[in-house]
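Shipment paperwork, digital attachment
Item: protein structure file
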Amino acid sequence: MNKLLTSLVFFAVFSTSSFAQGPTWTTSTIQAYNGYDYELWSEDNTGTTSMTLTGDNGQGANAKGGTFTCSWQNSLNILFRSGKKWGMTGGPTPNSVGNIKIDFDATWSSNDGARMLGVYGWAFYPSGSIPTQDESGVTRQYSDQIEYYIIQDRGGYNPATGGDAAGGGKKKGSATIDGIEYDFYVADRINRWALTGNGDVTFKQYFSVPKNTSSHRQRGIISVSKHFEEWEKVGMKMMDCRLYEVAMKVESYTDSRNGTGTATLNRNLLIIGEAPEGYFTITANASPLSAGQVTREPYLVFYPAGTSVTLTATPASGWKFDNWDGDICETNPTTTVTMNANKNIIAKYSLVAGSDIDLVKDGNFPGTSLNTANWSITSGATANVSGNKATINIANLGTNEWEPQLTQKNIELIEGMSYILTFTASAAAARSINVMFQESGGEYTTYKAQDFELSATPKEYTLKLDMPSNDANVQLAFNFNYGESNKTSSITLSNISLRYDIPAGSSSSGAPVCNGGGSSSSIGDNTPILISPLSRVEFRVSSMNNKSLLVESNSKATVYLYNIKGNVAQKIEAPAGSSIVKLSVPNGIYIVKNARTKQTQRIMVK
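Attachment content:
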């Protein structure tokens, strides 16, 4: 593998460079400048746009790479980007190009719902691998072009869920990259603008989207190649696709030609190839992600051997720093590491006893309308907001018990933690509703669900949740098609809050607990112990003594353990073969379900 494939790699860490400001564009333009490829693309050149090139060649101690400032007003669909273009003949594949990373820092301001900041590019399927069906199974004639996104920050609209085929984008999997848990989606664009054609090309879109909005960021290092590798693992073909481009991008889209905003890309260092000999990298993240921050000084992409790097952990409100984990293990929130190898470091946080952190946003319903950035209501119902209350008026019931529903997504819940949901509710006529916590995609696994009986008198209700696994994108849902009568009776909700249930006087030990990485919370060591790499059956679970299960599977399996109320009690990641897993649930009868094959069986935990 070549260690130096492009002049864009930031190696000369002690030299300096200075470049004058570049040109300003006001219409669609493509141009190379100081070794980076810049592009302004505006659909129909609608509205007033401006893009000023401010970047250098990415070399030197103060290098900033392919930077720019931009603004837009009354736009339709507009993209500003800077990176590397190999062109329509196609460049190297992710397999051959070596490691790709982007070190970025951006600021932006816009109220456009469909706006995105992140990595962007195009690639080409190899001959014989061009798709023939959309994500709903309809046969179509596809181009060889792939449009891809690695989103770092966005507006209220999640573009990965869109697309032109029935059902929109389809989730393919998820993985944690650079300390952020991403969901992977594929969407179809039918008769749309692409690299070729005139708005008449059908092609696939790939997306990496942070599961939790609290993971959105405007600066950091993006391991682009790692996304490509993880896409390939879940069936999103990429590793042998020729690359047209990899770039850092600001995009806005509106249907009504009223897009407005400004953005500045302060740093955009594109690194293609391996680190030079004698240089190392450092990855430092918080666990949980929303519990605090980690800063490092000096901030470099590659560190010369022997460099001392100071790391500082700063907890968010209601959290406290416990210890560093990974390649160091200590309790001082400020520490120094010497770069003699690549470092992977985690700052572990825990809750402060008595912390009053509300995980629900806008649970007191401020203003005079539903804040759609935090709340969503399905068709068949509307919400009237007044006096810090939301009245749900139901016009039509759906075919499912949850239709219609009011939801809030992107709630990060931690394995082993307990939570208390409280809300005040009443109904125009006595009726039932259902409240649940569940995955916001994939299998929509339910973590906890409970029915509540409402009357005309407002009353405070409580639901307690013991979280069986980590999930950075839990959905809180109020489901209204429940009960035996008055299902269309209006409901009034207020004072919705979700807080940690922390026992009085609880505290964490001052001694560091280090295990080389992972979550700061756990409900017990339920890692399966592999006893054989082979399984004689496709899938089977058998009860053993001492609260253990024998899991037999001919492939890796995600297994959910449900209690008699239908709630998830434990999640098991079983390897292929035969393994034993220790359970952390009470004795009793449970149902196990293979998330992939949907196979279920009844077991006794004893």
